[in-house]
Amino acid sequence: MALGARARRDFIGRRSALGLIAGGATIGVARANPALPLMPAALTMATGEPGGGFALFGPAWGMAAQKGTRIAVSYHASGGSAANILLAEQNAAQLGMTTLAVAAQAWSGHAAWTGNVPLRGFRALFPIFETTLQIFAPLDGKVRHLGDLTGARIGIGPAGGAGSVLIPAMLAAAGISPRLAITGLYAEQTDLLREKRLDACAFFGVTPLPAIRAAAKRGGFTMIGFTRAEQAAIGRIVPGLAAAVIPATSLPDQSAPVATIGSGAIAICRADLPDMLAGRLTDAALAHRAALIRDLPGATLFHGSWIEGDIPVEIHPGAAAALRRHGLAAPARLIQS
Question: Which ranges in the chain are annotated with CATH 3.40.190.10?
Answer without folding.
Answer: 29-129+265-334, 132-262
